[in-house]
Hints:
This protein is an alpha/beta fold and 320 residues long.
Amino acid sequence: MGKVGEAVGGESQMIQTSKLWKKFGRLEALRDLSFSVPARSAFALIGANGAGKTTAIKVLMNILEPSRGSATVLGVDSRKISFHEHRQIGYVSEDQDMPARLTVADYIAYLRPFYPRWDRQLEASMLRQLRLPLEHKIGDLSHGMRLKMALLCALPYRPKLLILDEPFSGLDPLVRDEFMEGLLLQAGEMTILISSQELGEIDGLATHVGFLEEGNLLFQESMSDLTARFREVYVTLENGQFEPGEFPELPKHWLHVRSEGNVLRFVDSQFSQEALGERIRSVVKGVRIVDTQPMALRSIFTTLARAARDGAAQTKGGTR
Ligand code: ATP
């Protein structure tokens, strides 16, 4: 198992999980989960509701014990994480535990002495940016305000690792933008693990993606590799119509194939310009135009989720 600072595939890993299982009674929430988060990356853990994202994060934070397998965070076994590591980890989750009776100002003042690296300037600029009411009691804050408060408590000590579990849930678009701005101020200086359903938001932040499906990791990949291998493809015929079921032998890595009039449309999950043209011409006659469009993370996710649901085998591009 790699430690922080130890080169694994040329990069040091801030988080590594190895064949991690978590069972709740008979339910297997995590199944043989192995993934690694390279230093200074922003790793997005994505997956449908119930895929196991929160469970994985709770194991990493030593809130839950793994049933089998192991995880290291900052090079330390997740079961042995102590205050020393916690001072280098920022953790923001929806159900963050914060003292309801303290005011925003009092709680920040309470936290500062625990962290030698606490940056008062950063605290002040985040307070301005997030517009948190200093004199309000934490218990009186709205859901969005509480999330912003959690971020404010997690960033000024400049953690090496920031773990965000569904940080956008229930936030209105303006607050989301502000939250993102607060985050992007520091992204790049630290490693981020983020779980989120808001794929539009994390598209601009994530450098790596891990796709969880029913506790299994379907793949982990850099965003650049992922976006390079996915294309929405439109094939227009000279004449005539595509008939449903006309092409039984289409490549398995063509996903979500459908036709409308004389246009055949699909998602190529192993895109290469040369191979695609050749492949299309070998299965479709009378092609007039082939148009390819890059895809946003959200569209890639929905394509993969649909393919997984429909039992398509070729969603993997290899784990990198
Ligand atoms: P969401 O996006 O909906 O938050 P998630 O990917 O974070 O989902 P988890 O919260 O990790 O998913 O849940 C994974 C599975 O484990 C679900 O089936 C959930 O019901 C189950 N689960 C999670 N926590 C517990 C628990 N404490 N006891 C029993 N089952 C649990």
